[in-house]
């Protein structure tokens, strides 16, 4: 794998040699002082350009970076452009995700000067790389404060609890019907999203709301107490319904423990009735199910 110095030299030289490029800056994890400094970090680069059309129409300029073995771009179906609802205004900005044969990855975009001035594609994780004529703004040192866990309002706290317990009922219903895809997807998206949210608020309490748990909560192991994290790992399950029920029980216990701590800290009222109603519904379903429902699918 090429070194960071080699990659940054390629990125800078490509920008310097292209008259269409006015400036370049780095963003993302490589600018984040709190992110792990490992070899897997992408190079998140933005070129400020005179126009975007020629970059999109002819991508030969990317060859400077090396042999591309996998690529995704903003206009691809099902890709990040669709996921983040940014499949428009390509005359203003456009981007590509590039993976090279040595394992390095560059997420690179082009944006016009007017878009750069608006700050549409950047946040406070910003490091200037090249500025041919004083185009880039003078910003403070990079920080991930934009991504720090935010304190909940009582309305959001209660909504999180309600959504967790309501969606658990759908999970139980899916298990009872032997509809594993529905039950598993509901559990691992809707239910887990609320568990993750509550755990984030708990981490916020422990850190004075001064950290980010990372993209898709990748830093949970770092910020949760060891026993909490061990329980969290056990909330993941397989296609065995007996194991699934066990994971649900662990999720409920972990959610309750965490939610009570958050409620106590903020002087919120924990919605005990929501938990009781959900619990009764789920116990009724489990009590009516034949033992054969625990088979592996």
Note down, in words, how this protein is organized.
The relative contact order is 0.11. Helix 5 (154-176) runs antiparallel to helix 6 and helix 5 (154-176) packs parallel to helix 10. The chain has 2 domains: 4-146, Beta Polymerase, domain 2, CATH 3.30.460.10; 148-294, Four Helix Bundle (Hemerythrin (Met), subunit A), CATH 1.20.120. Mean pLDDT is 95; it is low at 292-297. It has a 6-stranded mixed beta sheet. It contains 10 helices and 6 strands. The chain has 297 residues and is α+β, with helices and mostly antiparallel strands. The protein has helices spanning 4-16, 53-57, 80-83, 113-118, 154-176, 180-207, 220-223, 226-233, 241-266, 272-288, and strands spanning 21-27, 43-49, 68-73, 93-100, 105-112, 126-131.
Overall tally of domains: 2
Average predicted local confidence, pLDDT: 95
Note poorly predicted spans.
Answer: 292-297
Number of helices: 10
Q: Which key phrases capture this entry?
A:
single chain, 10 helices, Four Helix Bundle (Hemerythrin (Met), subunit A), Beta Polymerase, domain 2, 2 domains, 6-stranded mixed beta sheet, disordered C terminus, alpha+beta, 6 strands, 297 residues
A few lines on this structure:
Helix 6 runs parallel beside helix 9 (241-266).
Secondary structure topology:
Blueprint: H1 4-16, E1 21-27, E2 43-49, H2 53-57, E3 68-73, H3 80-83, E4 93-100, E5 105-112, H4 113-118, E6 126-131, H5 154-176, H6 180-207, H7 220-223, H8 226-233, H9 241-266, H10 272-288
């Amino acid at each position: 794998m090429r070194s960071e110095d080699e990659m940054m030299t390629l990125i800078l030289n490509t920008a310097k040699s292209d008259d269409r490029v006015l400036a370049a800056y780095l963003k993302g994890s490589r600018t984040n002082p709190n992110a792990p400094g490992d070899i897997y970090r992408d190079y998140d680069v933005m070129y400020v350009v005179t126009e975007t059309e020629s970059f999109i129409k002819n991508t030969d300029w990317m060859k400077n970076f090396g042999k591309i073995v996998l690529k995704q771009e903003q206009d691809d179906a099902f890709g990040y452009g669709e996921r983040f609802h940014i499949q428009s205004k390509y005359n203003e900005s456009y981007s590509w995700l590039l993976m090279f044969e040595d394992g390095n990855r560059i997420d690179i975009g082009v944006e016009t000067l007017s878009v750069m001035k608006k700050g549409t594609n950047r946040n406070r994780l910003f490091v200037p790389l090249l500025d041919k004529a004083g185009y880039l703004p003078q910003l403070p040192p990079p920080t991930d404060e934009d991504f720090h866990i935010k304190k909940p309002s009582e309305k959001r706290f209660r909504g999180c609890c309600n959504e967790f317990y309501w969606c658990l009922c759908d999970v139980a219903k899916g298990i009872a019907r032997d509809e594993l895809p529905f039950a598993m997807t509901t559990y691992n998206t809707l239910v887990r999203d609320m568990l993750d949210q509550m755990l984030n608020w708990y981490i916020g309490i422990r850190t004075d709301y001064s950290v980010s748990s990372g993209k898709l909560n990748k830093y949970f192991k770092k910020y949760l107490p060891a026993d909490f994290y061990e329980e969290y790992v056990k909330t993941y399950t397989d296609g065995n319904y007996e194991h699934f029920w066990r994971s649900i029980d662990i999720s409920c216990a972990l959610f309750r423990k965490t939610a009570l701590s958050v409620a106590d800290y903020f002087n919120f009222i924990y919605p005990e009735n929501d938990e009781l109603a959900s619990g009764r519904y789920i116990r009724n379903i489990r009590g009516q199910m034949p033992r054969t429902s625990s088979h592996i699918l």
